[in-house]
Request: fold
Amino acid sequence: MSRKPAKSARSRASKRAEAAPLAEIRGVSKIFDSGVAALRDVSFSIRSGEFLSLLGASGCGKTTLLRITAGLLTPDSGGISWKRGSRPRETGFVFQEPALMPWASVRANVRLPLRLLGLGGRSADLRTHEALTSVGLEDFADAYPHELSGGMKMRAALARALIVRPKLLLMDEPFAALDEISRFRLNDELLALWQNLGCTVVFVTHSVFEAAYLSTRTLVMTPRPGTISEEIRFLPATERFGPQYRTSAAFAARARKLSEALERAQ
Amino acid sequence: MKQRDLAAPLAAFAILLAAWEVAVRYIALPPQVLPAPSLILQTLGADAGLLFGSLLVTLRITFTALLLATVAGFLLAVLFAASRFAERALFPIAVIFQVTPVIAIAPLLLIYMEPAGAVLACATLVAFFPVLSNTALGLASADRQLRDLFALYGAGWFRTLLHLRLPAALPYFLGGLRIAGGLALIGAIVGEIAAGSAGAGSGLAWRIVEAGHRVNIPRMYAALLLIVIAGVAIFAVLSWLQHIALRRWHASVIAT
Reply:
């Protein structure tokens, strides 16, 4: 996981960000039974291989939008057209909380998606080990969730999303509850994983810094009803990777740009 | 439990018994008013055949009722989980049975059923509700994000029930079972007393009623002692079951 991504992977990542849309979200609106207008006429595309952030204040419908994208919620109007006709079966989802089954070991938790998809046997064992290793939890396979720290629980949740070898990875403020040191580390590891796996990430966050650090493209959202107010694109520069980027002027400029866009969205 | 945890309640119990024994002997209370603990034990030994036979009768009713209540309560809770309509339609009826004192229903049951069946029905009725309401609550309490995950990977209602909702409901179910165990015994006793001499006169409650008629106070106490021991034992066994089933993961039993 801490391996440095190869140079070729970097340029591939840059190319991928320019690739064809994986999905088109068109005119999605959602009003909850309570009368809260969560989303109004939201349209955007998800491009193959990009790291797309949805940035907005709490309660601006980011989570709703992500759940609609995952097919967990039906919009009142509008819809999603997937490039291949339907959402990839290999979709990973990381929630706000780790949401692990407390009665099951870390191994069983990570393996759950394969079990639900009907994949078992030796190859499932191998993939479970692979997923645990990729987040550095291989020594905790037999532990129970209550024995793990907050950061380790989130790693287990990440491994559970990675085990399907996702083509699409949906993440809902996954690191919001973590301390800053754990969050920085997980951000770096997530970037490395994104590079190595070549998947598309849709990342919901309320943190300007996280969006600036991670994404190739950021959609800024306004609250109640949720709409997209601005799109800010960043090409993944080579120097973007690595912790030193966090202290660079380029990062500060990006963060400022997003911060101003977020301010305008209120 | 650690030995130190047991010491305090045992000491309190011993002091209470000793004070009782001394008081009865010192005031020279006749056993018809208050028998000394030693006399109660003596009576228990003398009437052992009679009383332990009755204990078995009462325990058989209690456990049959607990089993029926558990199966029915569990199945109904699953039905409620499957259908909001069924829950809305049937839950109020379950509540009506729960809030109506069983002692008030017993005479009616005794008209419609054989005494043995009526006693069993009383015990089942009171034990049923905690299993139903706790299990229903547990099935509804499965983590929403985990439900999303199951839906994301195409798990249907039954697989979600089996792999998510039932395990999530287990601690609630076991908690309900522990309450139901005590209530089943209470229901059996209440049913036996209501049945009176019609109940073929063989359960422990009947022994108390009968001994009361004969002013055999020591035997009343001896029968009562057996009921108390049975109640504590049922509670202990069900608590142990809860501990064994949940010790790996649930916050209520994980040693810190």
The interface with chain A takes residues 143, 145-146, 148-155, 159, 163-164, 167-168, 170, 248-251, 254 of chain B (CB under 8 Å).
